[in-house]
Each structure stands twice: as structure tokens, then as C-alpha cells.
Specification:
Blueprint: H1 15-21, H2 24-27, H3 31-47, H4 53-72, H5 84-96, H6 98-101, H7 109-145, E1 150-155, E2 158-164, H8 165-190, H9 209-215, H10 225-230, H11 233-259, E3 267-268, H12 287-310, H13 324-348, E4 350-351, H14 353-361, H15 367-376, H16 381-398, H17 407-411, H18 421-424, H19 427-432, H20 442-461
Antiparallel strand pairs: 1-2, 3-4
Length: 464
Amino acid sequence: MATLWGGRFTKETDSLVKEFNDSLPYDRRLFECDIEGSLAHAQMLAKQGIISEEDGKAIHEGLLSIRKDVRSGKLEIGGGYEDIHSFVEAKLTERVGEAGKRLHTGRSRNDQVAVDMRLFARGEMEEVRAELLALLHIILKKMKEHEDTIMPGFTHLQKAQPVTLGHHLGAYFEMFSRDVTRLEDNIKRMNYCPLGSGALAGTTYPLDRDYTSRALGFAGPTRNSMDGVSDRDYEIEFLAALSIIMMHLSRLAEETIIWNTNEYRFIELDDAYSTGSSIMPQKKNPDIAELVRGKTGRVYGALMSMLTTMKALPLAYDKDMQEDKEVFFDALDTAHHCIVLTGKMLETAKFNEARMADSAGGGFTNATDAADYLVTKGVPFRDAHGVIGQIVLYCIEHNKALSDLSLDEFRKFSSAFDADVFEAIDLKTCVDRRLTTGAPGHAAMEEEIAASEKFLEDRKTACI
């Protein structure tokens, strides 16, 4: 198979070298982007008079026919070509003859692959963003359904204070909404077109880089030709964003796994998103959540691989950069699956509200509120803290909850207790009295839900 660069070589490439060097098995995913970039480049060449209008038209029609045939399955990407770029150019030349050889005028594979990767990355960022917004809609729906579902909040995996399930899920809404805005920032920062940078030093042809930038939906051309062909910051930023997304998914997966245990029984996963055991017929395992948790390290690995590949590369383009694609594609596939499956798993899950409420009541989660009650009666907080600590110890010794104590038992520890203590330590009261911004109280949650709705509403029509 003839290469695009064989003119100055007198020997055939060693077969092992060819196998080692070729990237078509994985960069074939750039096919659509390569066609898109080539169409814009050809239109610009014809507009500028660098190639004839006749050749420009032939190239345009040839590229469209190749795309149509690949999409329909009539033409298969393969055949021993070095990469997707040589495949497209060879097929174009087969179809339109000499005109096809003029497509590469004023263009290097360096800026060609650079624009292909930017187009691909931008499209993937937009897709991941859409998947996150779909997940946020599911989370918001659950927040509304469980706005007043009382459950224990935890620190150190120990029961701490009563919250609501809606409030707990709201924390994940905040995480994933930050992920959305992080992707939006990434898209704005990377949305500049390297096409026209050439191999590294631009070209002597009178290219209209603003034209190709607009045609491909970029904000403008990159400002430095050497950076244009060697920049992979946008991939690294995207992988960093994906790593943070995966970290958030993994935290949610971890809690799902814990809550799904027999000891907690806070959540029951739908059969469609669980698996069984080959030997234990009673088992229903949270394998999807466990795989999300496990695959997080895979995406982290892609980020570290890219950082390591780029850390010592001299300007401008180096073949090392070919190593970006496999890990980049794998991380994207992993993240796509994990986001979508997490949404489906959460949407179909059932929460055991009674069990959550019982758990909150049995773990002294209202102890802080009991201390605050004493403060309202004039007891200094540090003293109140000590009194409630003694009461908790008493309850543990007598196998009681705070709400099980009589008023006389409370008064053994402080005369400040009155009959209204039972209202003060009721779990619903404990939650609803927390009204500061961001708290789990009903009024505060109404504000949080409204803000979450606005976040999603703003993105129905917003342009990135």
C-alpha cells in the first residue's frame, strides 16, 4: 500500500514497523471528522483560487460519496492504510482522479489530525454534557420525590444528624452540575481551529483560516502554528473532567453499594441493573455500581497516560502524540457507559423510606438538637454538649433512643429540660428547623430545588 510520504525512501517499510506505526485500527473513529475537515478545506481552497472550482466541486462530491458509502456499509474502512487520513485521500483519488491529489494542498497531516481531534473532542464533550444533564434530571426528580424522606446523615460512616434523602441526593446534583459547567468551560477554551497551521510553520498559500474556522463551527483560528499542531491540552482537560465525573459517579456507586447491603437496606436496585451468583441462589448483587466504581481507575489511568506522554515533548509535532487516541477513546467509552447506566440504575431504584427513618431515629442523630435545646434554655453550649454526651451514654447502657426517655430521666441530667424537649428532638422538627441556605429543612430545600430547576432550564436553550 503506497504511503503519503514515500517519495524520498528507497526501501519498503519493515512489516513490524508498519504494524507498530499504523493507527487506522483505532483512528478510524475520526472518519466523520476527517471528512468534515476536508470538506471545509477544499471549499476554502476553491474560494481562494488555490484550486479550480471544478476540482473543488469534484473533491466535494467525492468526499460526500465516500461518507455515504461508509455510513451505508458499502465501503469498509480498512485495507492496510496507515491511518484514516491516507484511507480517505486514497479513496478520493480513486473516485475523482487528479483532483483528489489536490485536496492536501496547504495542509499537513499534523494540522489535519489536530483539527480532526478537536472536532471529535468537541462533539464528545457535548455528548457527555447531554448525558450529565439527563442524569441531573433523574436526580432532580428523586430530590422532589424524597424532599421530606428522613434519613441519617453520616460522617466517618457513622450516623451524625438527620437529613432527607432529597437533600443527600442534592449533593450529587451539585457535583454533576459542576461537571457540566466544567465541560462548558473546556469547550469554550478549546474551540479554536488549527487547520492551516501546516506541519508547524503555516504555509505560503493564501489560506483563509477564518473561513475554515467558521465553516467548522470554531470561534476562530489558533494564533500560533506550532502550538496549533502540538497542543493536546484540550484532551488532557477533557480527561481531567472525565476523571472528576468518574470520581463523582464512584462516590454515588459506593453509597449505592453500602445502602444496598442487608445491614442498611436503604435501597433496592431493579433486577435489570443487578446480577446474581452462580452458586448462591439468594444473591442479588450491585454489579453495575461496582463496575462504575472499578472503571473509575481506568479513566484516571488515561489521564496519567496523556500527561506522561506530553510531559517532555519538544515543539512541534512528535509521533508520541499518536498515543493519545487509544486511551482517549477508551476513557470516553468508559465514561459514556458509566454515566448512562448510573442514571438508569438510579431512576429504577426503590428507596426504603421506613427503614431510613428508623435508622435515623436509632442512631442519636438528634443529639445535637438536644444540645441546642438546652442552649435555648440558657445552658452554655459546651456544658450542654457534656450533658447530652452523658445522656447518650445512659441510653446506650439502657438500650434506649433519646425519644424513649421520660421527662424524669432527662431531668436527672439537667433541670433545664421541660416537656417541650420531645418536640425539639423529633426528627422532623430537627430537619425542618434547619433553614439556612443549603440546609435540609423543607423551606431551604424548596430553594435548592428551584435553583436546580433553573440550572437545567437555562441549559435548554443556552449556546455553549
